[in-house]
From TrEMBL:
Residues 10-37 form the Flagellar basal body rod protein N-terminal domain. This is Flagellar basal-body rod protein FlgC. Residues 81-100 are annotated as: Disordered. Residues 100-144 form the Flagellar basal-body/hook protein C-terminal domain. Residues 81-91 have a biased composition (Basic and acidic residues). NCBIfam families: FlgC.
Length: 146
């Protein structure tokens, strides 16, 4: 694995965490929503990650590395909706109330989403720092040759 592959690996993680942050922002924006785009209660979304395979990393003819495969990043595989029910609040005067007088709000848990946002933000920052460190190491290496 070359030093330059670090940028691809961290870059894919930055991109994936950026998508995760967008999903969290959408969830938080709809935390108190009673109706989503389809007219039903908004359902919280979550990002599913998948590793990206670098492929066969073995050197040709080298029995110690032949057939080994290495992961080389991450990508967003899917954005799924959480299926747990939304919270029901008794509001008989609300036009969206059902026959029993209950309004169904989204199933977004604001505390969980804030924790998810902090985690995604930290992961994003860490991967940016990895890329900056790799860049500085490459620059120092080039300066050694001068």
């Amino acid at each position: 694995m070359s030093m330059f592959s670090i940028f691809g690996i961290s870059g894919s993680a930055v991109s994936a965490q950026s998508q995760r942050l967008n999903v969290v922002a959408s969830n938080l924006a709809n935390a108190d929503a009673t109706a989503g785009p389809d007219g039903k209660a908004y359902k919280a979304r979550q990002v599913v990650f998948q590793t990206v395979d670098l492929g066969d990393a073995g050197a040709e003819g080298d029995p110690t590395t032949a057939g080994k495969r290495y992961s080389a990043g991450v990508r967003v595989d899917a954005v799924t909706e959480r299926q747990d029910p939304g919270r029901r609040v008794h509001e008989p005067g609300n036009p969206l109330a059902d026959a029993d007088g209950y309004v169904t709000y989204s199933n977004v848990n604001a505390v969980e989403e804030m924790v998810n946002m902090i985690s995604a933000s930290r992961s994003y920052q860490n991967n940016v720092e990895v890329m900056n460190t790799a860049k500085n190491l490459l620059l120092k290496t080039l300066q050694l040759g001068q």
